[in-house]
Amino acid sequence: MAARNAERFLQQAVDSVLTQTVSDLELLVVDDASTDSTPSLLASVRDARLRVLRLERPGGPFVAANRGLAEARGDFIARLDADDVCLPNRLARQLAFLDGHPSVGLVGSGCSTVDEAGRPLGHWRMPASDGAIRWRCLFAPPFLHSSVVWRAALGFRYDASLEVAGDYELWTRALALTRAANLEEPLVTYRVWAGGITGTRAGLQQDLHDEISLGQVRARWPALAVAPGLHRELRRALARGAAPPSAAAEELAHRLRAAFLAESGGDATELAEACPLPRTAGAA
After folding, report:
1. Is 63 exposed, middle or buried (0-12, 13-18, 19+ CB in 10 A)?
2. What 3-state class would DSSP assign to 191?
3. Residue 101, domain extent
4. Domain count, the chain
5. In terms of Cα–Cα distance, which of 242, 247, 217 is closest to 231?
6. 38 falls within a domain
7. How far apart are CA 47 and CA 55, in angstroms?
8. What is the mean pLDDT of the chain?
9. Which residues of the chain have pLDDT under 70?
10. Do 174 and 34 sit in the same domain of this protein?
11. Does 72 lie in the same domain as 129?
């Protein structure tokens, strides 16, 4: 957990980890040079499983996260943002899944969403199968960052040069190394509020998602010669589950889907079902 001036919700996040039904864990909180009461709040926690690491100068969320990854001693890495909350059985469910699926190295989950005051907003479901995750990753992050658990032996690290979207960039590299899954059940509570990174850096985050997505597409299928503007139009629609907004974008979507299915192998029907395209109104 990376924490920068996180006093408002940090106690809930910390408590949700330390009260997991899995007790054999360590919680590393990297204090990214906070100037609020974050240090004193962490110092008040009387649990030997908590280790606090402090950066004397602000490094940003991915510098802080990499510091924690370098210090972690467990066989598995679980991530949680400092304004989100784990359900009590989160780690038990995800570790059991990884134990039962040795070829999977990375697993996330669905989530419940709440507002700033903790009022329920709804639920998010993430793509469940490896094929669906890979299709989604072409256009948007296929995992909720606070829900992921991975095998530490994979050695994942974030691109510390990024201010936002470092999780999306990591998933594009991680999927080249391992199979992945998402459990459909909501195992974390994600807070939607103006003070979160998505709220404060939304424009930059969208621009970087465009760049990461286009980079993947061009690297995999250079012959498609995808234009940045058209790709951005399509990506932003598909990321929110909307239909392609123009005939040109719809044609590009079908070309990308055909290219993806052609190179993926496996069961064609299963893969086709894993990467649907939203239909425009009135489409057959």
Report:
1. buried
2. strand
3. 2-200
4. 2
5. 217
6. yes
7. 21
8. 93
9. 197-200, 266-274, 279-284
10. yes
11. yes
